[in-house]
């Protein structure tokens, strides 16, 4: 029914980021560009390229036509605030939920802890005080276009708007129409002494597994006993719990020496993973014990400043005042409701005020938007508003809930469970209590760690740079006012040099050249014949970050040596005069030689600078554009960051650690696999990268035909339509499950794809509430890595009889076909002649990670022999 393309779409993110470094030196190695193409949208489809219910219309200059009023918009059309750009697809963010229950703060997003991230130039920390704008503020130069001001925001649920459609924001105790107010708002929870202990089930399972081995039995048994004792001691006076935690810390420190003494590598790996799982929990448990006795919850909330909120809103109103799209943006950002909240000096304990702040914050940070829309929301006025909203949206976190969310995520790894823990981390980091904020930072360091790491060596970069040919060119110049004619030959070598820096990714494009020329020049009655040898080194430093490649001014160093190889004069052959004239000519030539050398060096330096600027523009311009369009922009549109956790450049290797996650999502939390020490390039990818992206596709609970699904995925991922469809199956409809519709797992040398479907129909046949699981294993051959489906498709559902099993297995066996494995390595990289002595020396899939490395073939052969034994 559905035919998958030969190249998978979900691995492109990790592959493109890895190959970005390889492409920086040789763009022809990676020329498979992921391009977003505008899909032919079907009229009336939920994602059919419409803006607020009407088709997009733009002239050749990119200007948009006026859109109709709200009365013309279909009631079922999803709301959107879309940027109109002739070079982009329209993105239709769903900004509200249809859940009839009261708003919950489970979607709150937050910024990473400052101690963890490398701050990029221009980043700011903390709120910035904004001055009130002038009465008439000019329109900004670059305000992304949105729907016409007359258009309604569409199908934002009535529940989502009730809190702000009043002339005044309701007081505490008042209720918008259609809602029942509780008699009393419950007091928010706090870090109470009567903590409800949450058993670390996943850790205990690891310990049970280690207890079965003789080498680790003693360690695992002791840790298991201490963990179980801690459950009853942690809610008692802290002395008992502290002694147990000290014992657990000592046990965690003993893991590495014990693992080194174990000959069984698999057992040693399991021990290290258990030690890492124990260490991150001990950090959290110890801080919970330090927090100690419960304190009033209201005292643990960050202070809010209504005046600061008013200043932020004034900046946004000034920014959007003179724009026809400004009204739509102000409605989207809930400016009127927030201003009413700040003017009335509402108590921050007001639950409805808190919900309003959380709702506005979700719109700023979580709604999938196009790149220009995201750029507007990243501007300083909106960023300042977001920082204020985080303070208003914060709520206290009790230890019982925190432990429950933490262990739930440890057990499932699902993005939905990760959001709950991310919310707790955000609230704790905002707490004015230093003990609570320190707990939030520890959780952030453990659970929002890097989930993508890539490294590349200078050796590999230089292998991929083609050697330039010698250049022969005529000389037509003037030196010290004298015409110079002749011929020059230029030999050059192009290389990449890494520039060591502890916190940045820096390198330089370097051109080393030799210019050998034979020239002649005539001055008066004398003609001089010179041989000149010039050497130069031109360097173009650059820095890599998530905004692209930043080029610095070129540096050129030139050395020149000129020798006079011959001299002719008009008096040659005339006795006495010939010798006299040549002597005078040689004397003047020697006098002018220093000045001539300086001018020649300036000319060579200018040519070298022009050449290296041209080389850098040609080699890196397209790479930057591909990276931005194929990786960074789609991630930003899906609110996935990314964020640079760490960058480091040594003399031989460049390493970057990234977190690909929204501010309401988690990153890596388990130890990544280590690449072989002799690898020339390596990549470690955590499953959270893919699951965070899948969570942003907005599939949960939605119904699509197959063509609609294809267009929806292409729009969200900014790629070509990923599925090859048979027109016979255009009537197939699929409704995804409301929770976790698509999940990817990396475990036990398998990539597991889990698909949860609420309803699937074709013609008169219908199937409900079932799951599909496909299992893929890697196949490594030289530099080629493929994922091939193993065994049969697994179907899980209570209502699937034998006939349904056969029918569905046939459908999904075609969608996840064994005959079409997913090729992860680009063909040009496989066939590159300079890589013939290299092979994939590592490709492991386990504990939530994929680890891949490229290195010498002898390493790959040695590892294959080790696996046999």
Sequence-ordered SSE layout with sheet pairings:
Layout lengths: L1 E3 L7 H14 L24 E2 L2 E2 L102 H4 L39 H11 L5 H17 L4 H16 L1 H6 L4 H27 L14 H15 L5 H7 L2 H9 L7 H15 L5 H7 L2 H14 L5 H14 L2 H15 L4 H14 L4 E6 H6 L7 E9 L2 E17 L6 E19 L2 E20 L2 E4 L3 E15 L7 H61 L5 E7 L3 E7 L21 E6 H9 L7 E3 H12 L5 E3 L7 E4 L5 E6 L2 E13 L2 E17 L2 E13 L5 H14 L6 E2 L3 H5 L6 E9 L2 E8 H12 L1
Antiparallel strand pairs: 1-15, 2-3, 4-12, 4-13, 5-6, 6-7, 7-8, 8-9, 8-10, 11-12, 13-23, 14-16, 16-18, 17-18, 18-19, 19-20, 20-21, 22-23
Roughly how much helix do the residues carry, as a percent range?
25-40%
| Number of helices, where a helix is a run of at least 4 consecutive DSSP H or I residues | 23
Radius of gyration: 33 Å
Global morphology:
elongated
Low-confidence stretches: 1-192, 865-869
DSSP strand content: 15-25%
Report the count of strand segments.
23
In this structure, how is the largest beta sheet organized?
A: 7 strands, antiparallel
What structural class results from the helix and strand content?
alpha+beta
Mean pLDDT: 75
The end-to-end distance, rounded to whole angstroms, is 43 Å
